[in-house]
Specification:
With about 350 residues, the protein is mostly beta strands. It is built from one helix and 22 strands. The radius of gyration is 25 Å and the shape is elongated.
């Protein structure tokens, strides 16, 4: 079948549009919006440094980090835009794990490019405060815990508290997360990931998993103005949710911010953590960070045990290391009683009586 020249041109335009959309998409691997209070501004205003951090996997074939990020500030409540900023990228940080350690078999490449966008603004004191938002499309493809990730956008947002408080909430800065973002997590192995933060204002902090937000779409992947809140949650796949982003065997400690548990199957998982700030016992704000955590088919030469061992039929238990690392060659078990040790791969031990034995 022959096609006339006009049809050929139309086909090429459609292919070009599709290619353009795919190039602009599939590159966001997490992000964080934060702010720092800088003191009084002019004419009674308050001065803040607003910082957006965008993550991109170094091995991504998607779009590069944008030169310009469009950040919108909304009055609360109601979402009226009071300022729209075109913020030039300040610099790119490269986070790379160079020494995975000798106890990890088949270590993956862990590397992120982080685009940092910073803008100083002055805002009028506001009774209810401000929302700061940035939206972009799209997240990377084949994320394990959300549906159709390659068409799912992102919204990164922060809230500046208002003056309707017993405390000086507007004179506040976002907490800073301590995580290096370059952790190796091996599938089906126990892990601990420190997602803790510190606060320059001395506020007490607690932690919880939270909803990641959807954002822009492929038809308008880089909107020049963010939509106002509230924002839609991303669609989690079966078996996952915002408070179980890596399955039901992974939890976050509300007091320390440490994420721990037995990792799910190899893949990429969207995890959002909100750290809640309390001052003088009162909640003043919540700060969010969204990260795509990579789980790989590596193994760790370490003891991976069940959190509890319980028997209702006598005092005899059989133990085995749940790690399947080929680097493990020998075994040294200690059952918590004098002389109660073994070098067997799967030892069986009969305890003298009921009780609780604590293992490291």
């Amino acid at each position: 079948m022959r096609m006339d020249p006009a049809s050929n041109r139309l086909l090429l335009i459609l292919i070009g549009l599709s290619f353009g959309l795919s190039v602009q998409a599939r590159h966001i691997a997490g992000g964080e919006m934060s702010y720092t209070y800088l003191g009084p501004g002019t004419d009674g205003k308050l001065k803040y440094a607003i910082t957006l951090r965008l993550y991109r996997d170094c091995q991504s074939t998607g779009a590069q980090l944008d030169d310009i990020a469009y950040i919108t500030i909304f009055d609360r409540p109601g979402g009226a835009a009071v300022m729209n900023l075109a913020v030039s990228r300040d610099h790119i940080e490269t986070l790379r794990l160079t020494t995975p350690g000798p106890c990890i078999d088949n270590p993956p490449i862990v590397c992120y490019q982080v685009g940092v966008y910073v803008k100083t603004v002055e805002l009028d004191p506001s009774k209810f405060g401000y929302d700061i938002s940035y939206q972009r499309c799209c997240r990377i493809e084949n994320i394990s815990n959300i549906v159709n990730s390659e068409i799912i956008g992102t919204t990164y947002t922060a809230t500046i508290p208002g003056t309707n408080s017993e405390i000086t909430a507007p004179k506040n800065s976002s907490p800073h997360f301590n995580t290096s973002d370059t952790v190796i997590i091996c599938e089906n192995n126990y892990f601990v990931y420190d997602f803790s933060a510190y606060d320059d204002d001395g506020d007490s902090l607690t932690y919880a998993f939270d909803q990641p937000f959807d954002g822009a779409d492929r038809q308008n992947p880089q909107p020049t103005m963010a939509a106002p809140p509230p924002y839609s949650a991303i669609p989690y796949d079966f078996g996952f949710s915002f408070n179980k982003p890596m399955g039901d065997q992974v939890v976050i400690d509300p007091n320390t911010g440490k994420i721990s548990g037995v990792a799910p199957a190899a893949g990429i998982y969207v995890v959002t953590v909100t750290v809640t700030e309390r001052r003088n016992g009162k909640v003043i704000n919540g700060h969010r960070k969204d990260l795509h955590i990579k789980v790989t088919p590596c193994t760790i030469a370490a003891a991976t045990l069940k959190p509890n061992y319980i028997t209702c039929d006598g005092f005899t238990l059989t133990f085995r290391n749940l790690s399947n690392s080929p680097l493990i060659k020998t075994f040294d078990w200690d059952f918590g009683l004098p002389g109660a040790t073994s070098t067997d791969e799967r030892p069986t031990y009969t305890f003298p009586d009921a009780g609780v034995t604590v293992h490291a």
